[in-house]
Amino acid sequence: MSDEEERAYTSGLPGVLGLIDTAISRLEAVILAIGVLLMAVNTMANVVGRFVFGESIFFSGEINRILIIMITFAGIGYAARHGRHIRMSAIYDALPVGGRRVLMISIAFFTSLVMFFLLYYSVFYILDLYDKGRILPALGFPIYIIYIWVPIGFLITGIQYLLTGIKNFRTRDVYLSTSVVDSYKDTETEV
Questions:
Q1: Which of 75, 117, 128, 157 has the highest count of CB atoms within 10 angstroms of its CB?
Q2: CB of 142 closer than 8 Å to CB of 133
Q3: What is the pLDDT averaged over residues 68-91?
Q4: Distances (CA, A) of 77 to 21, 93, 149
């Protein structure tokens, strides 16, 4: 982690938007931290059980499946918040600052719409799983529960891109997220 990420996140947005942004940031951090820790503990316990006691934990795979889904969909919001998403920027880089700002606003609002569209369809997917009544074989609880993280992740990411679009709309600088200004660092080292 960089020095910027090690400090507590503070939103670059004013008023209520800043409060929403900061609250979502804290929620993401808690979800990701708990998810990664639980996955590590579960995996280590399963390895110890297998090699020391000769038996695996029968539900370990299902727990890790749940945690992978949770971490993935909480992680997309985190990536958007910290400007760590994949970008293809050949045209973007060739534009002057004003053009980059307009393009970033368009990208942020469009991506937000896509995330909300995926949120909408993920809810119907969960409802379909609910209607089918499938359960996890080892844990025995309904399978739709593990997919609750999908719409939550799309919601958080959609909100983050929406806030990024608003931030770019309100400032002269170009922002990759509400707190990350678009800039280039010299990556070459002197010999």
A1: 157
A2: yes
A3: 84
A4: 11, 24, 12
* Distances, alpha carbon 65 to alpha carbons 76, 123, 126, in Å: 17, 19, 16
Instruction: Tokens for 166, please give them.
Output: 């608003």
b/e map 88-103, b = 16+ CB within 10 Å: eeeeeeeeeeeebbeb
Q: Residue holding tokens 């608003």?
A: 166
15 in the Ramachandran plot: left (φ > 0), alpha (ψ -120 to 50) or beta? left
**Distance, CA of 168 to CA of 157 (rounded, Å):** 16
How many C-beta neighbours within 10 Å does residue 43 have?
A: 15
